[in-house]
Design goal:
Strand order of the largest sheet: 5-12-11-7-8-9-10-6
Mean pLDDT: 87
CATH superfamily of the domain at 616-813: ATP-grasp fold, A domain
Number of strands: 26
Shape: globular
Oligomer: single chain
Largest sheet: 8 strands, mixed
CATH class of the domain at 616-813: Alpha Beta
Distance between the termini: 26 Å
Structural class: alpha+beta
Strand content: 5-15%
CATH architecture of the domain at 616-813: 2-Layer Sandwich
Number of helices: 35
Low-confidence stretches: 1-28, 593-598, 756-761
């Protein structure tokens, strides 16, 4: 199997975003300006977020510092009391600043109901303090008696001893628990890697000439950096302030401690404190007895990676919280040594590089960056070189794609655990955004990513498959997802994109695309777009070039922000970005108006049946009615109901004719009907173009008019006979009255699933609504949704008659699926039409709607993990209507073998039955939305899978795509 393109993940799309708004981070509601003012005040305040030193008695009484607790004095604690505004911020907004642990309830601190937010905030507080001279405790860090380290240490030990005994917690939250040990005081805590980066940043901020050294320490740290820092201090001795000299001295001490040999004596004592009946204790003592820190790193790294996995897989054999605490501390200590030894291992042949990547991938599993089941899935793909003198270039490519995936999954594990809290803090403290990057760089993912990038460069050279991206370093990390080309201003967005204005003619580089991405000229993302998400399907339709890149690539490209660039992605995935002045004549010719106009197509309206103005039962509709009575969602689901009656719910359809009838009503304050207002809008736009007004002016005019129309439709009076008929339809189809059956309202227009345009996800779907009022209001909202800015811009880009868009509505009862997703009946990555590409997430609206999905390539006999799920939140659909947000962990795969067999079966039946029963000449792949409830497969939608033929057949894209002989052999002992 050849996996030449990137591992799939997902991006947020509009469909679920409308329902996530009430559940988004508290950052949506907090008073940002107020908090920014408070942060500034605390930094300048001698006592920071505290007001006084007090005694805290066991009975809950708080006494003055000079008035100790009268009873149980030994159990009383003395430390700072929070200011009233600090407590108010915690109470109102659940934001915990300057938290003192010794007087904190341990269960409240674990904060399980809020996805461990309070614990994670404590870590971010410590991070901010380390990089910003104490942050809110800039002055209060010298407030004597505010925090008693002994009490904090004691609290930390008891905290872990209380929360570690539960097996499910240690298994499910392994990564988070290991990370928290770095920050919560408990005697074994240490985060020297972070301290080293924080101190180097502080020096560089004080003395900018240190910036090159800081970049080296952050990106490629080695033991030689100690000498580099020492020489730097000597060289600039006369230019440094006393404070900077002190910081450089502290940095050297931290580095010396970080690069010190493994303290075997201390670790042996630690292991000996583990209960003697614990089998892991013997394994660890044997490891320490045979370990020799002077051995070659290529011998030590495999040992260290293996012992990390031993600890993780056997930690549940230890029953006590104390034993588990000792094991986790040991795991962190071993990881610290592995980080140093892996940097010393610099292979000089292909075999050595493959082995280094394999063992670092195992270490990623041992440290919790990837799950153990994920490691077992990909392990065979990282062993193809074992025992072989040669491997094919195809095998090397598979190895590369698998190891790239592990790097990305590792980074995604950090993001999945911390992104919600980071986004919350970033709204009032932008420095918090660096926390995730800092954690990634503190892990094996740093050197693993470097090694994988090195392998990518070797393979690219052998394949003649190289990127040409503005002369930045580590270009082998960049790989194309969707072919296409674009020209426009480059916009690099390093932080959250949700409030960034998006322009159609610009090329965007995102950490993660915004949830409601409007059409753009080109896209690059660190968090890859899933090829089966709505946004990616639209990008694929329009030939919008799309590529994935690393976080370091994004930072390197930031200096080109605002430059006009040419951007192209070939069918094989190589990427070109060059500045405007460097474009060839051929590249400039790609953007003539003639070619652009040829891309547009017309929405067919010749056969539309606007005379049908009654509510339809979905059983009475089939594929032949698509574009006539209703859109393809309803027509195709009606067809599926006939073919798979047990796998498809009942349904009602509000056809085009009912919408059109309502549009004949007089539009308030306009004196004309809604329909006349709409057509006048487009007629006037054509007149403006004829008068040589710019397209931007025309578009702005249309958007203002359509926004007014949208608002008016949402307030439209529904015809009484239609409402009566709708109520009857509920009773007949769903066996219950309207208001007693939670349903989905799915927009279903005649512009969707055209031969050259999918229209996926452009218009509104309403989840699990119950009351009659919400349903009737929802109908109007769905009718109005084609006139939103996003929907209009996408279809305006591709359709030459966007005014002829008619919405129908599909109403189906909710199915509270445990997991849901998308199936494409071809291998998108492999290109094999007999394979299946599936992406599933937990809960409703999976994969197409933004979750970081579990993605697989399913063949007739096997299935390959392309990406695991990395979304900790998901929605369920209660019978009472609405949605509930739940959280999850990733220790188990989503799809089981029975699910996969059901998917194979239904895909084969779809391929056979649809042509037989519809007489369709369509021979392409199908895009199917489906879900599982109690292991039963439900089908929710089917549509043609549309790809942009211009992008795929472009002579230019063909010209930049190298011909690769994937059967050529590579000698594994070849020097590199």
């Amino acid at each position: 199997m050849q996996l030449k393109n990137s591992v799939l993940k997902t991006t947020l799309s509009l469909l679920i975003f409308n329902f996530l708004i009430p559940f988004l981070s508290q950052a949506q509601d907090i008073p940002t300006s107020y908090l920014k003012e408070k942060i500034s005040f605390y930094k300048a305040n001698d006592r920071g977020p505290y007001k006084s030193i007090n005694w805290f008695c066991n009975n809950g009484e708080v006494r003055e510092a000079r008035d100790p607790c009268p009873e149980n004095k030994d159990d009383a604690r003395q430390h700072a009391a929070y200011r009233d505004d600090t407590k108010e911020i915690a109470k109102k907004y659940s934001i915990y600043l300057g938290e003192i642990l010794s007087n904190t309830d341990r269960t409240a601190f674990w904060d399980e109901e809020n996805n461990n937010s309070r614990l994670k905030q404590y870590q971010i507080n410590k991070y901010l303090g380390s990089i910003d001279d104490g942050w809110i405790q800039r002055k209060s860090q010298f407030y004597r008696g505010a925090v008693q380290s002994e009490d904090e240490q004691s609290w930390g030990v008891e905290f872990f001893q209380k929360f570690l005994p539960r097996d499910t917690r240690v298994i499910n939250e392994y990564f988070l628990l290991r990370q928290s040990l770095r920050d919560i005081p408990h005697d074994g805590d240490s985060n020297l890697a972070q301290d080293m980066r924080s101190q180097s940043k502080t020096v560089a901020d004080d003395f900018p000439k240190f910036m090159d050294a800081r970049i080296k320490i952050h990106g490629k740290p080695t033991i030689e950096d100690i000498e580099m820092v020492r020489n730097f201090q000597i060289k600039f001795e006369n230019d440094l302030k006393p404070k900077t000299k002190e910081e450089l001295t502290n940095l050297q001490k931290t580095m010396a401690e970080f690069y010190a040999p493994l303290d075997l004596t201390t670790l042996r004592k630690q292991v000996q404190n583990i209960s003697k009946n614990n089998a892991t204790r013997i394994r660890l003592l044997e490891f320490l007895d045979t370990y020799n820190d002077t051995d070659k790193p290529e011998l030590l790294v495999p040992q260290l990676a293996d012992i990390l996995c031993v600890i993780r897989t056997e930690i549940t054999d230890a029953s006590s919280g104390n034993d588990r605490l000792l094991l986790l501390d040991l795991s962190n200590a071993v990881e610290d040594v592995l980080l140093k030894k892996s940097q010393e291992w610099q292979p000089d042949d292909v075999l050595g590089l493959l082995e280094k990547i394999r063992h670092l991938s195992l270490a990623a599993a041992g440290t919790g960056l990837i799950e153990l089941w994920e490691w077992e899935k990909v392990k065979p793909q990282l062993e193809v070189h074992l025992g072989n003198a040669d491997v094919t270039l195809e095998q090397l490519n598979d190895f590369l794609n698998t190891s790239r995936g592990i790097v990305e999954w590792s980074a995604s594990m950090v993001k999945a655990n911390y992104s919600d809290v980071v986004e919350l803090y970033s709204s009032f403290e932008p420095m918090a955004y660096g926390f995730i990057d800092d954690r990634i760089r503190s892990s094996v993912a740093l050197d693993l990513g470097e090694s994988v990038s090195r392998l990518g460069a070797i393979i690219a050279k052998k394949s003649n498959l190289s990127n040409n991206v503005l002369n930045i370093k580590s270009q082998s990390s960049i790989r194309g997802l969707n072919p296409g080309y674009a020209f426009g201003e480059l916009v690099v967005i390093e932080e959250s994109p949700e409030n960034v204005p998006i322009d159609t003619d610009k090329i965007y580089i995102f950490q993660k695309p915004p949830s409601d991405l409007k059409p753009v000229a080109g896209i690059m993302t660190v968090s890859e777009g899933n090829l089966v998400s709505h946004v990616q399907l639209l990008a694929r339709n329009l030939g919008i070039p799309n590529a994935a890149l690393s976080g370091d690539n994004l930072k390197a490209l930031s200096k080109y922000n605002g430059k006009k660039v040419f951007y192209a992605v070939s069918e094989k995935g190589n990427v070109i970005i060059k500045e405007e002045d460097d474009m060839s004549g051929t590249e400039k010719d790609l953007f003539s108006k003639k070619e652009r106009s040829q891309e547009k197509i017309a929405v067919p309206v010749e056969q539309i049946r606007l005379d049908v103005q009654n509510v339809l039962n979905m059983r009475d509709v089939d594929a032949s009615d698509s574009g006539k009575l209703c859109g393809p969602k309803a027509a195709n689901l009606g067809q599926l109901k006939k073919m798979f009656p047990e796998n498809v719910v009942e349904g009602l359809i509000i056809p085009f004719g009912i919408f059109r009838k309502h549009m004949d009503q007089t539009m308030p304050q306009e004196g004309v009907s809604y329909w006349q207002y709409l057509n006048t809008t487009f007629a006037d736009a054509d007149k403006m173009r004829a008068s040589n007004l710019s397209e931007k002016e025309v578009e702005n005019f249309q958007l203002l008019r359509l926004e007014k129309l949208k608002v008016a439709i949402e307030k439209m009076q529904l015809d009484a006979s239609f409402v009566s008929e709708l109520k009857k339809g509920f009773r007949d189809a769903f066996g219950n009255s309207i208001g007693n059956v939670p349903v989905f309202l799915r927009s279903d227009t005649n512009m969707e699933d055209l031969k050259e345009f999918t229209g996926a996800g452009l218009n509104l779907t309403l989840f699990n609504i119950l009351s009659e009022e919400n349903i009737t209001q929802g109908i109007k909202k769905v009718w109005a949704s084609p006139y939103t800015e996003r929907s209009f811009k996408w279809r305006q880009k591709y359709l030459n008659n966007p005014e002829n868009v008619f919405p129908s509505i599909l109403i189906i009862p909710s199915v509270d699926v445990e997991y849901s997703g998308v199936m494409i009946t071809k291998g998108i990555n492999s290109g094999n039409d007999d394979d299946l590409t599936v992406a599933f997430s937990r809960g409703a609206g999976g994969a197409v709607d933004g979750q970081s999905a579990e993605t697989r390539l399913i063949t007739k006999s096997s299935n390959f993990l392309l990406a695991p799920a990395r979304e900790d939140g998901y929605l369920r659909l209660p019978k009472t209507g609405g949605t509930t947000k739940n959280t999850t962990t990733f220790e188990k795969e989503i799809l089981n073998e029975n699910n996969i067999n059901d998917i194979r079966r239904i895909a084969e039946e779809i391929r056979v039955k649809i042509p037989q029963e519809t007489g369709s000449e369509y021979e392409g792949a199908w895009d199917v939305e489906l879900g599982f409830e109690n292991n039963k497969l439900w089908l929710f939608q089917i549509r043609p899978f549309v790809e942009n033929k211009r992008a795929k057949s472009s002579e230019y894209l063909t010209s930049i795509t190298p011909k690769v002989d994937y059967n050529q052999l590579v000698w594994v002992m070849e020097k590199i």
